[in-house]
């Protein structure tokens, strides 16, 4: 019998953030957690995490050195496949699940067998938990597929995927282990399978200027441009997507966050 769901959480020197994120998982259905420590000097407190978690089991894996997100997540995918999990989810340290997030997504996936990847909308907050805006990506596959050329149409820590797609498509590309590994994987999925976003903000996503994605913003945008080129066809969306990303390359994360906050509050 297949196990239901395992949530992959990469960890790097943030035991407090890890505890905060795992503590937010509050579900009616069982949710197992697989923590991949990416060569941290500050290790997770296994006993404390296991003792405080009642929604399922927590497993730990320790990489000998810091190798990047693609390597860490591929270790998690290998675990999910080996242990026969039907679904694989994601969560990042300091991001939070809203109550019954996974339960709602699993119910949706069980009733929509054609959907292979399901994200959610997200409440974007600053480091002090002040709401910046609600990120509402398109919910239907046709629009998601078009708009992937403009930006990532899924909030990475919100997604739940059918684990069997990795046996077909492969896992995260190590070429993009430092930036945009989710964008590259999701592009492959969207081109072959049906996808969707659940129309509710079920993730609280912390936008920190000290986060890896903020510090590597230029690399992330450059990688996004390369991924769009890899999937290019002569049409409006790919051309506009490259032009848009080229402009964003010169804007800071702080500037784009402020612009989004103003636009989305209107």
UniProtKB/TrEMBL annotation:
Source species taxonomy: Bacteria, Pseudomonadati, Bacteroidota, Flavobacteriia, Flavobacteriales
PANTHER family referenced in this protein's UniProt entry, alphabetically: GLYCOSYLTRANSFERASE, UDP-GLCNAC:BETAGAL BETA-1,3-N-ACETYLGLUCOSAMINYLTRANSFERASE-LIKE PROTEIN 1
Keyword list, A-Z: Glycosyltransferase, Transferase
Matches recorded under Gene3D superfamilies: Spore Coat Polysaccharide Biosynthesis Protein SpsA, Chain A
Gene Ontology molecular function terms on file: glycosyltransferase activity
Native source organism of the sequence: Winogradskyella bathintestinalis
Domain Glycosyltransferase 2-like residues, every copy: 7-169
InterPro entries hit by this protein: Glyco_trans_2-like, Nucleotide-diphossugar_trans
Protein name: Glycosyltransferase
EC number: 2.4.-.-
